[in-house]
Amino acid sequence: MRGLLALLLVAFATPLAAQAPLLTSHLRIHDPWVAADTDSQTYWLFSRNDPAVTGDKRLGIMAYASRDLAHWEKPRVVFTLPEGTWANEGAWAPEVHRWKGRWYLLATFHNEAAAIQAKANRPTYRRTTLLAVSDRLDGPFALVRGGNPIAPADAMTLDGTLHVDAAGKPWLVYAHEWMQVGTGTIEAMPLKEDLSAAGPPRLLFRADEADWVVGQKQPEGDIVHVTDGPELFRTATGTLLMLWSSYGKDGYVQALARSTSGTVTGPWEQLGPLVERDSGHGMLFRTFDGRLMMVVHRPFKRALAKFYEMRDTGDRVEVVREAVELDGEAYPTHGCPMGVQDAGC
């Protein structure tokens, strides 16, 4: 009996860190996406699979699990691209959405050998968002329709997100690559119930419509404007907002736009940066205690996840504070993260 009691005391005394030994500041995360599973009271943070971390060399998506957004379990691979699929690189910008009782994973893949018609003075190739599905949030996910793109196959696109409008109709919202069009755009495509295309894409806005966006000089001699990471959010009063990213005067920027019609087709007005300091590709989610949070990656190279507590003001969202208790603020304004001396940072 005494031995059993001792074991129980040890078990209850084991800190959360023993179950989830990784701190947020340990995680190399680009294009972060957090899904909060209320049934298990678990947060899932999705990212491109890193073989150095998972030991799995396959191209795909991994996910970290946490109960508090500060301590994370070692990641598991939740999706791998099947052999024989047209794509051979990418696994960028994974997102997981609930639709019709199942979980759908969207992620960007490409193949530089699969050339498409160029609309700019640089090589363009097949890059697009693929769809996978699972009955569980933590996978495994299976590729839908053999990996056929949702967006037009001749368009070089990325960072697709699922938006369900007020009438319950699904849309794919994505960035049309600057590599193909010079000035990147955000576009939306109506979808059928099976999340296949239901009509042609519609232009929402161009990157250069935002006065804070700075054009990027390219080796080919032209100046381009980037669009990245659209994610839509409807406020408590029904206002439709979009997070998206581009480059400002001090690097990558997390910005906000607003639909003046309250619908995905807009028109869209630019509200300016939410977070600068070489930060972006963010998304919004609710914690289990009801707080609105945003996660971005910072800095752009060798990125880590950075959390902010947010406020829904009805006509927009605002940053309340940096959640330094979650990530330790291991993200200086300039240079490498603390403790990192890698020259590639």
TrEMBL record:
The keyword RNA-binding does not apply. Keywords: Glycosidase, Hydrolase, Signal. Coiled coil: none annotated. It holds the Pfam family Glyco_hydro_43. Residues 1-20 form the signal peptide. Pathway: Glycan metabolism; L-arabinan degradation. It comes from the Bacteria. Belongs to the glycosyl hydrolase 43 family. This is Beta-xylosidase. It comes from Sphingobium xenophagum.
